[in-house]
Specification:
Radius of gyration of chain A: 28 Å
Number of strands of chain B: 12
Order of helices and strands of chain B: HEEEEEEEEEEEEHHH
Structural class of chain A: mainly beta
Distance between the termini of chain A: 39 Å
Structural class of chain B: alpha+beta
Oligomer: heterodimer
Shape of chain B: globular
Shape of chain A: elongated
Number of helices of chain B: 4
Radius of gyration of chain B: 19 Å
Largest sheet of chain A: 5 strands, mixed
Strand order of the largest sheet of chain A: 2-8-7-4-5
Strand content of chain B: 35-45%
Largest interface: A-B, 22 and 21 residues
Strand content of chain A: 35-45%
Distance between the termini of chain B: 50 Å
Chain lengths: 541, 215
C-alpha cells in the first residue's frame, strides 16, 4: 500500500512541479552541486563544491549559495570562481530544526538568465527540536527522503579509488589511490571520506522535479553582486526619477558610492570590493522631499514548500543519534576556526588627504560638539541656536567660507548639523577637516568634516531622513584548510579539488576512533556534464 | 578662466556598462595668471583618458598637463569646473587619446633621482619594455627683473632610461645612449646606420631604444 501511495504522490508531485512557474531553467543540468557528506547536524558547516560543466574562462564568476527552509532563507554565501569551480562552506545555525532543507547554488549572466541547481540536505537538530519535520509528516503530499546511500549507477570506469584493504583499526592510516582517466575532468576531482549508515537500510532519492525558488520580477541574478532598489515619493508614491542615491558603510576610511535612479525610480550598486556581512546605509542625497527606499532581495526567494521529510525510522536510528552526539562533542571541544577574509581595503578616503587630524581625547573633556568646535577646531565654525544650526569651514588658502560642507560620522553622510551636537569628547576618536573644494565623481565637496567615533558603527547620531540601514551579504573567501584530524567528526577527509596536474593521486587519511562503515568517494564531471564517481567502502573495527 | 572654459566642447564622461560611475577625485584648480608663457604642455585642451588605481578608466575627458606643478588638470563637465586630478588614486593617463600623436603618462613608482624625478611624478612613457624610456616634462621659472613684468616660464624635459630597475638620466642623443651601453657600441652604430636613425629628434632615439630592446 505504501509503495502505491508513494508512486501516486510522486506522480502528483511531478505534475504539480511541472505546472509551477518557478522550477528550474533548462540549463540547470550544467551546474552540479556536491557536499562533503550526506547527513548534517545543526551547528555544523556544509562543505560544498559546485561545478559548471560548460563555463569557459571568461564566463560567470559569481555563484550564490544558500540554504533555505520553506519560505525562508537560513544562510547564504556569495563566492568568486576558482578556475572551473566554486567551493566553500556554509553554516547551519544551531537553531535549525530537524528536517530536509534545500541547498541551492545559482548564477546569472549579464541578461539575468538563471542557472540553478539544488540538493536536499538532511539536518538533525542536536537539541532534539523536530517540530518542522513532524509537521511535514502530516502533509499527505510530502515524501520521506533518506539520502544515506550512494547511487550505484553513477559509478564510472573512468575514475577509480581504492585502498590496500577494506578493514582498518581505529587510528590507522589509510593510503588511498585515486585514478582519473578522463580526458577532461571539469572542475577537477573531489575526494571525500565519511561515515555512513548501514548499507542494508533502504534509501530514497528526491524526484527530479521540485520547486527551487519563487519567481519575482524585482529579482534579477546577474554576473555581478549588486544591491538594487527603488525610490518613491513618500506621499505621492510616484517613482523618484534621476535622484542621487548614496551607499555608505561605517568605516574608518570613508568611501561612499552613489548612483542615480532611472525612469522607474530604480537604482543599482555594483558591490565589487565588499567582503563579508556589511552594514550599509542607503539614502537619497536630496532631503527637501520625503522618499521611501525599498531594497530588492539580493538572492532568490525560497520556495513555498519543500515536500520532503526525514522518515521516523532513520530519525530514531542509532546512526542519527550517534551523529548528534558526535556533533555536540565536536562543538564543545573544537578550537575556534579563524576564518581569514581576503579583504581589499580602500586605502584612501574619498575626500582626499587632509593635513591634520584632531584627537579630542588629547584635550580636556568637552561636553558637546559645539564646545569641541569652539575650543579645538579653529577653521570650523559651528553654531547652535534655538532656531537654527549651521556649520562652516574656513579655507585658509582661498580665504573663503564653505557654508554647506559635507559632514560624515563614521563614514556615513549626515545632513543636519544639529545632529552632531550630541557628540562629545568621550564619543569622538578623531576629527578630520577637508578645507579644500574637491570633486568625487559627480559630487562637489565644498569642505568636509569627518568624525570618527570610538564605536565606529554609526550609532551615536540619528539616522538621516530618507535613509535606511540594512545588512548585506557580500563576497566571502576563506583560507580553506580541510580538517584532517577527525576529532569527533564523521568526515575524515574532504578536498574539493585534488591536484589537477596529476592523473593518479595518493591520499592518506587517518581513521576515526569511531567504529563503523565508511565510504570514500572520488567524483568529477566530464565535458558533457555527466557525473563520474568512484566509491570505496571500508570498515573501521 | 572663462575663456578656458568657453573653448571646451561638451563631452560626456564615459560610464562603464555596469552602471557604476568612474569616480574621479580632484582638488579645485585655479589657473595662475602670473606667468609669461604657458605653464601647460599643450595650450589647447586635449581629449584623453584617466586610469585609476582601482582599474577603472574615464574616457573622453578634457585634459591639460601643468608642467610647472606636474599636475594633471581635467575639466569636469557636470560641475563645470577645473580640478587637479588626485595623484593618490591615479595610475596613468593618455592625452590625445586615439590619435597618432597621443601621449601616454604613468605615475612613476621608483625611487627617483633627486629633484629631477621623484616618486609619484608623472612621466611620459616613450617606450615600455625591458628598457623603459621616459621623459619628465617640467619647467623653470625665471624671475621678472623689470617692473610690471611677469615671471617667465621655460619648459624643460628630462629623459630617463630604466634598465632592470636602475634609473639613468640621458640626453636624447645617440652619443648618450652609447655612453650608457658601452658594450653595445658597435651594435648601436649598426642599428643607426641600418635604420637611418638621424639623431635629430626624440622619436629617432625612441626608435633606437625600441630596436635595442628587441635584440
Amino acid at each position: 500500500m505504501r509503495p502505491l501511495i508513494t508512486i501516486s504522490l510522486i506522480l502528483s508531485l511531478c505534475s504539480w512541479s511541472l505546472s509551477s512557474n518557478a522550477g528550474k531553467p533548462e540549463n540547470s543540468k550544467q551546474l552540479h552541486l556536491q557536499t562533503d557528506k550526506q547527513l548534517y547536524v545543526s551547528g555544523e558547516d556544509i562543505a560544498f563544491k559546485c561545478t559548471h560543466t560548460l563555463l569557459n574562462a571568461n564566463g560567470n564568476n559569481i555563484l550564490f549559495v544558500d540554504i533555505c527552509g520553506e519560505d525562508y532563507l537560513i544562510s547564504s554565501r556569495v563566492l568568486i570562481r576558482e578556475n572551473s569551480h566554486w567551493s566553500g562552506e556554509i553554516n547551519i545555525p544551531d537553531s535549525v530544526q530537524t528536517g530536509i532543507y534545500l541547498l541551492r547554488a545559482y548564477l546569472g549572466n549579464e541578461h539575468g538568465s538563471l542557472t540553478i541547481t539544488s540538493k536536499p540536505v538532511s539536518v538533525l537538530n542536536r537539541f532534539g527540536n523536530n517540530e518542522v519535520n513532524e509537521h511535514r509528516k502530516l502533509n499527505q503530499t510530502y515524501l520521506p527522503l533518506n539520502q544515506m546511500n550512494i547511487e550505484a549507477e553513477t559509478i564510472s570506469s573512468a575514475i577509480k579509488t581504492y585502498a590496500q584493504k577494506a578493514t582498518y583499526e581505529p587510528g590507522e592510516t589509510i593510503h588511498f589511490t585515486v585514478e582519473n582517466n578522463l580526458e577532461t575532468a571539469v572542475g577537477g576531482v573531489s575526494f571525500s571520506v565519511f561515515k555512513v549508515n548501514d548499507r542494508a537500510l533502504s534509501s530514497t532519492l528526491p524526484p527530479a522535479n521540485y520547486e527551487f525558488y519563487r519567481a519575482s520580477e524585482s529579482i534579477k541574478i546577474i554576473n555581478h553582486l549588486t544591491l538594487s532598489g527603488k525610490v518613491t515619493g513618500l506621499l505621492t508614491n510616484q517613482p523618484a526619477v534621476n535622484e542621487m542615491v548614496l551607499l555608505s558603510i561605517p568605516d574608518t576610511i570613508p568611501n561612499i558610492h552613489y548612483n542615480y535612479t532611472n525612469e522607474k525610480g530604480e537604482f543599482r550598486f555594483q558591490l565589487n570590493n565588499f567582503y563579508g556581512l556589511q552594514d550599509a546605509v542607503i539614502q537619497t542625497m536630496s532631503k527637501d522631499r520625503k522618499f521611501k527606499i525599498e531594497l530588492y532581495p539580493m538572492q532568490l526567494l525560497p520556495p513555498k514548500s519543500i515536500p520532503f521529510f526525514i522518515p521516523t525510522d532513520f530519525e530514531t536510528s542509532e546512526f542519527a543519534k550517534l551523529s548528534v552526539q558526535r556533533a555536540t562533542l565536536h562543538k564543545a571541544f573544537e578550537a575556534e576556526e579563524k576564518k581569514q577574509l581576503d579583504i581589499a581595503v580602500p586605502k584612501y578616503p574619498f575626500y582626499g588627504a587632509t593635513t591634520k587630524r584632531t584627537y579630542p581625547g588629547q584635550y580636556i573633556d568637552l561636553d558637546d560638539f559645539k564646545e569641541i568646535a569652539w575650543e579645538i577646531l579653529p577653521i570650523l565654525k559651528y553654531r547652535v541656536d534655538r532656531d537654527s544650526t549651521y556649520l562652516r569651514i574656513w579655507d585658509p588658502l582661498t580665504k573663503v567660507y564653505f557654508n554647506q560642507p559635507m559632514m560624515l560620522v563614521d563614514g556615513i553622510p549626515v545632513f543636519n548639523p544639529a545632529d552632531l551636537n550630541a557628540l562629545n569628547s568621550k564619543l569622538i576618536q578623531w576629527i578630520e577637516i577637508q578645507s579644500q573644494e574637491r570633486c568625487y565623481g559627480d559630487l562637489s565637496i565644498e569642505g568636509l568634516v569627518a568624525i570618527q567615533t570610538y564605536g565606529g558603527n554609526f550609532t551615536d547620531v540619528k539616522m538621516p531622513i530618507n535613509a535606511i540601514r540594512t545588512k548585506i551579504e557580500t563576497f566571502e573567501q576563506y583560507n580553506q584548510t580541510p580538517p584532517m584530524k577527525p576529532l569527533f567528526r564523521d568526515v575524515l577527509y574532504w578536498n574539493p579539488k585534488l591536484d589537477p596536474g596529476m592523473k593518479t593521486h595518493q591520499v592518506d587519511v587517518v581513521c576515526s576512533n569511531e567504529k563503523g562503515n565508511y565510504v570514500a568517494i572520488a567524483q568529477t564531471h566530464d565535458k558533457n556534464g555527466n557525473v563520474n564517481r568512484a566509491v570505496f567502502y571500508f570498515v573501521v573495527e | 578662466m572663462l575663456l578656458l572654459i568657453g573653448t571646451l566642447t561638451a563631452q560626456t564622461v564615459q560610464k562603464p556598462k555596469n552602471g557604476n560611475n568612474v569616480e574621479l577625485q580632484g582638488i579645485l584648480y585655479i589657473h595662475p595668471n602670473i606667468y609669461e608663457g604657458s605653464i601647460y604642455l599643450h595650450r589647447e585642451w586635449l581629449s584623453g583618458s584617466i586610469t585609476l588605481e582601482n582599474g577603472t578608466t574615464a574616457n573622453d575627458i578634457k585634459l591639460k598637463y601643468n608642467i610647472l606643478s606636474g599636475d594633471l588638470i581635467f575639466y569636469h563637465e557636470k560641475l563645470s569646473k577645473l580640478y587637479v586630478a588626485d595623484r593618490n588614486i591615479l595610475q596613468s593617463f593618455t592625452l590625445n587619446q586615439g590619435k597618432p600623436d597621443s601621449l601616454y603618462f604613468i605615475k612613476y613608482s621608483g625611487d627617483g633621482m633627486g629633484f629631477r624625478l621623484k616618486k609619484s611624478d608623472y612621466v611620459e612613457l616613450l617606450h615600455n619594455g625591458n628598457l623603459k624610456f621616459m621623459v619628465k616634462h617640467t619647467a623653470n621659472i625665471s624671475a621678472a627683473n623689470e617692473l610690471n613684468t611677469k615671471d617667465k616660464v621655460f619648459p624643460r624635459k628630462y629623459y630617463f632610461i630604466e634598465i632592470e630597475g636602475q634609473l639613468h638620466e640621458i640626453k636624447p642623443k645617440v652619443k648618450s645612449v652609447i655612453r650608457l651601453f658601452p658594450d653595445r657600441r658597435s651594435e648601436i652604430r649598426h642599428m643607426v646606420a641600418e635604420h637611418h636613425i638621424q639623431n635629430k629628434s626624440v622619436s629617432d632615439i625612441t626608435k633606437l631604444i625600441r630596436l635595442m630592446d628587441q635584440e
